[in-house]
Amino acid sequence: MKGKLLQNLSANTLQLVINQVFGLVIFYILSTNLDKDHFGQLNLALAILLAAFNVLSFGIDQVTVRKIASGQDPKTLLNTYLNHVLLTGLLFYGLLIIARLVLAVQFQPYQLLLTIGFGKLLIYFATPFKQLANGFEQFGVLTRMSVVSNIVRGVALIVMGQLHAITLTSVAFVFIAGDVAELLLTVALFKYKLKVPISLRWNGAAYVNLIREAMPQMGVVIFTSALARFDWIFIGVFVSAVKLAEYSFAYKVFELATLPLLAVAPLLVPKFTQLFNSADHRIDDLRFLLRMEMIVSSFIIVVLNICWAPLVDGITGHKYGSVNSQTFFILSLSMPFIYFNNFLWSINFAKGRLKMILWVIGLTFIINLCGDVLLIPFFKNEGAAVAYLIAMLTQAASYFKKGKIEGLNTIWLPLVLTVFCAIICVLASNYMHSNMLTTLILLSAIYVVLLLATMQLRPGDAARLLRILNLRNNPLP
């Protein structure tokens, strides 16, 4: 029988595959059916709302997962968390309405912001139920909670695309319909599957204690949220919606390419919490798993850059392919650093080093902010990509220096070597004039050879990975 880790990984991967497939369908339909100006406006509104609701979480989501994984009372946590999302969510949306009615905000996409914001408010209300399911490691339930919105949107947009009925207004209402469906199904699944009593009684002391515990993580969330979408907002407001449309297309594909990381990341915090509460840390297995992550993430650089221009130009009518080649290459180089950073963040979060994490994220945000302000006015989308890459590199160096763990002093080596192998392959592809498939097969083989030559891929790695994934009742990450 497969171990619990593999079961959880499979459930979480299923969720991500469904969401990413439907997300890709949605993104493709919108990018090809809306003009660049409207597509840019839509992405600007979504970027603002994503940043806002992430900040409003105050970092309570991750703290809740950790508290549930450590065995604390779920009823009290749910009650406190629900009160938080209702209070902060309604206050934020109320301020948006007041700004529209009283201050007569003239920002062009503001009506779109209000419309889509209502749906995002409902998704925000569903957050506590999802985080408790995460903390209980009920990834099968979490999968069903998390996929309905994208399925509803994807199916609706496919039908509307066939009817040639896609407009900015109709898209906004499709987004709301998906968000309503997700909230209703999430509450129903939580009630009948997890069976934790739902209460809305105010407990001031519990709320203050939760906020106080989340304070260091609150700063992390604020910086991370701004880091995730500041470049979008800056380009949309100070450059143009058209350039944002181009950049957001490249960035969205870049995000989709992190699917393997997204499958693993939610499993790490509860597993690392259990791991570092035990006497046996299994450092060798930690090093091995990180090396596997570096191999996968760097290989994604090779595949995506070989396929980017011919594939994207072919499916978008030359709207977003070649024009984004340099931007996407720069962004893709960040991918192994994101894996590396998430791995070290998960270890340090599980060990309760929240102040150190806040310092690292704050420094990353400052570097990215300065890079955007200095580079975007001159280099536009490429400048934003360079600023992001520098920020991720800075974050990796900071985590390594500030959060050293005994036995992990050389974990930076797989990061450097696998990225080096990937860059060689991408550069070599520029001198190959064969078709995309032939180039991909040949350079994939060269990548494997380079990994073997640098000792990043070794005999027995496959068997070791299977052994780890099939272990049961073992505190491996």
Describe the structure.
- The protein is mainly α.
- The protein has 2 domains: 1-228, no CATH class; 257-477, no CATH class.
- Helix content is 81%, strand content 0%.
- The chain contains 17 helices and no strands.
- The chain has helices spanning 4-33, 36-56, 60-69, 74-101, 110-135, 139-162, 168-194, 204-238, 241-256, 259-276, 283-316, 325-332, 335-350, 354-402, 412-429, 436-453, 461-470.
- α9 (241-256) crosses α12 (325-332).
Feature tags:
477 residues, mainly alpha, 2 domains, 17 helices, disordered C terminus
Radius of gyration: 22 Å
Unreliable stretches (pLDDT < 50, length at least 5) are: 471-477
What is the CA–CA distance across the termini?
Answer: 19 Å
> Per the principal axes of the C-alpha atoms, what is the gross shape?
globular
Topology of helices and strands:
Layout (H helix, E strand, L loop, with lengths): L3 H30 L2 H21 L3 H10 L4 H28 L8 H26 L3 H24 L5 H27 L9 H35 L2 H16 L2 H18 L6 H34 L8 H8 L2 H16 L3 H49 L9 H18 L6 H18 L7 H10 L7
Helix pairs in contact: 1-6, 1-9, 1-10, 2-5, 2-8, 2-9, 3-5, 4-5, 5-7, 6-7, 8-9, 8-14, 9-12, 10-13, 11-12, 11-13, 11-15, 11-16, 12-14, 13-14, 15-16
